[in-house]
Structure formats: C-alpha cells, structure tokens
Amino acid sequence: MMDSVELAGFVLSLAMVYCNIKEIHWGWPLAILSSALYGMVFWNSQLYGEASLQVMFILTSIWGWRQWRLVSRPEAPNTTPFRLSIKTLTPAERQKAILATLLVWPALSFFLHRFTDSDVAVWDGLVTALSLLAQYLLAKKKLENWWVWLAVNLITVGLMLAKSLWLTSLLYLIFAILSYVGLKAWHKQYAN
Known about the structure:
Blueprint: H1 4-21, H2 27-44, H3 48-68, H4 91-115, H5 121-139, H6 145-162, H7 166-191
C-alpha cells in the first residue's frame, strides 16, 4: 500500500525541482513542505541522516528563498531590482567544496554508525554530505549544483531501493533526469 505522506512529498518535490530549473523562487516553499513530509518518511525508514537532512533543507530553503527573491538594492531603493544570477565555482571555491564534503562525510557516517541503528550509515552519510553541498550551491545559484544533485540522486536511488521505498526511488530516478535537464537549462542561461 502506498504511503500518503510519501506520495504528497513525491508530488511536492517534483513541483519544487521544476521551479528550481525555471529559476522560480516559489520552489523554496515547496522544498520546505516536501522536506517536512520526507523527514517523517525517512525517520520511519531508519534513514536518520536523510531525516536530519530534511531539517537542514527546511532551514536552507528559508535562506535560499530569501536569496532568490527579487529585492531592491539598499543603496538605491528606486533602482531596478537586483536578481541573483547563475555563476560557476572558482577553482578555490571548488577545492573548499570538495574538502568540506570529504570532512563532513566520514563525520556524519561515524555519527550515524555510532549513535543510531542505521544499517546504511556510510551511504546515508555520503548522501547527506553531498546534499548539503548541493543545497548550498543551489541557493547561491552555482551551476555546479546540478552535477552534485545528479550524483546525490543516483546514489539515493540505490539507497531507497535498499530500504524498499519504491516510490521515493522512482522520485530520485526522476530527480537524476531532472538534474541533467536543470544543468542544461542553467548552462544555456549562464551562456547568455
């Protein structure tokens, strides 16, 4: 039988990614709602890293929504609104992102292994670490967020299959495809 909470999270998550691809800031409140729902689904499936990540997604979605909204420049209130534009990571930013992920992943995996009954602590820790990075890059409108999301989504398909979350596994397969679509759309926008 299909879980109604998982189904609602599934639908809201797809709408959120659509908004992200189209650079529509309403994707952020959809992310808040879908994260709350998936937090419950993951907790009940002993995916504690994923469940905790949903709390972080809610918090970063509030921040990301603010980043993406059109705001007037404080120094010139009557000027054209400022809009965050798509950029790429500098080599220094890329190195920091990789280093941060390589530090966070084992720390999360250790915590999950030591303090929870997770049977997939290493994979849950990896997905959590990469998801934090991807969410940060998305909020900053860095083109590379889509590459990180692609990796997250492909790994998560296997993780969800291992936990018999069939609908969520399908969702992450769709997310993987949409990550590629998002990459192409943002790359085209970035090139203009």
